[in-house]
């Protein structure tokens, strides 16, 4: 399996008032192409920080991040944005939908930025919205949708362009079990059929139960990992 993500000695320290908070402490991690993996651990263990560094949304205090063969550790703002657009889909815990856009427009947003024609965007996005139970709600704006519905729009936005990597921060946090299972099934299909790599941060047993690799973090360290598929 070809390595898609590598971190070496990755550390991130934040200043809160007069206190240094060590969110990550020398994390070494490799993620291969086609993995369906979860970062698990208690709140404050460093899961979201690690996703943000891999996704070029933040820069480390020290260490190196390589994604798709490129050192992304110190990319400038414009270069980081271009790299994300080309390679990475995001699902944020806070949804990050554009308030003035409809559900459909939010879902097609990445495709639009990539210059995909309107008819092709509609061909891709419409069945995805229907699959996640949002058929008929395409013209509603975020404030007209429940939290769970907004999260489903965010998932469709992340996967619509079939990126190399999807980074998902607590993607099922606001969803009921049935909806969570449906979304995970959709993401597993993309993983199997198109080789899209998924890396989640999660507390959700439903996500952890579907992951083929579970990396456990605590206090900014990797403290263990499991590969359920390999258990005999």
Question: Overview of this structure, please?
Answer:
The structure is a single chain. The protein is of the alpha/beta class. It is built from eight helices and ten strands. The strands form two sheets. Strands 6-7-8-3-9-10 form a six-stranded mixed sheet. It has a four-stranded antiparallel sheet with strand order 2-1-4-5. It is globular.
Continuous helix count: 8
General shape: globular
Give a quick account of the main beta sheet: strands, pairing sense, barrel closure: 6 strands, mixed
Rg of Cα set = 17 Å
Mean pLDDT: 92
State the low-pLDDT regions, or none. none
Supply the CATH architecture.
3-Layer(aba) Sandwich
Number of strands: 10
- Percent in strands: 25-35%
- Residues in helices, as a percent range: 25-40%
**Intertermini distance:** 21 Å
Query: What structural class results from the helix and strand content?
Result: alpha/beta
The CATH homologous superfamily is termed: P-loop containing nucleotide triphosphate hydrolases
Strand order within the widest beta sheet: 6-7-8-3-9-10
What do we call the CATH topology? Rossmann fold
Query: In CATH's first tier, which class applies?
Result: Alpha Beta
How do the SSEs run, as a string of H and E?
EEEHEEHEHHHHEHEHEE
Q: How many discrete domains? A: 1
């Amino acid at each position: 399996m070809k390595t898609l993500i590598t971190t070496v000695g990755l550390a991130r320290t934040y200043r809160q008032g007069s206190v240094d908070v060590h969110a990550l402490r020398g994390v070494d991690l490799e993620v291969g192409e086609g993995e369906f993996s979860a970062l698990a651990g208690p709140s404050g263990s460093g899961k979201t920080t690690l996703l943000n560094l891999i996704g070029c949304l933040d820069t480390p205090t020290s260490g190196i991040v390589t994604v798709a063969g490129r050192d992304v550790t110190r990319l400038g703002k414009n270069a980081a944005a271009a790299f994300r657009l080309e390679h990475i889909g995001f699902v944020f815990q806070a949804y990050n939908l554009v308030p003035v856009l409809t559900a459909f427009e939010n879902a097609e947003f990445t495709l639009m930025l990539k210059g995909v024609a309107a008819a092709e965007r509609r061909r891709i996005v419409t069945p995805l919205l229907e699959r996640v139970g949002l058929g008929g709600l395409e013209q509603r704006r975020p404030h007209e949708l429940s939290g769970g519905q907004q999260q489903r729009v965010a998932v469709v936005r992340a996967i619509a362009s079939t990126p190399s990597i999807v980074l998902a921060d607590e993607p099922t946090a606001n969803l009921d079990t049935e909806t969570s299972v449906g979304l995970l099934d959709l993401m597993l299909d993309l993983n199997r059929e198109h080789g899209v790599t998924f890396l989640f941060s999660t507390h959700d047993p439903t996500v952890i139960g579907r992951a083929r690799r579970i990396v456990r973090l605590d206090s900014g360290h990797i403290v263990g990992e499991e590969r359920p598929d390999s258990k005999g």
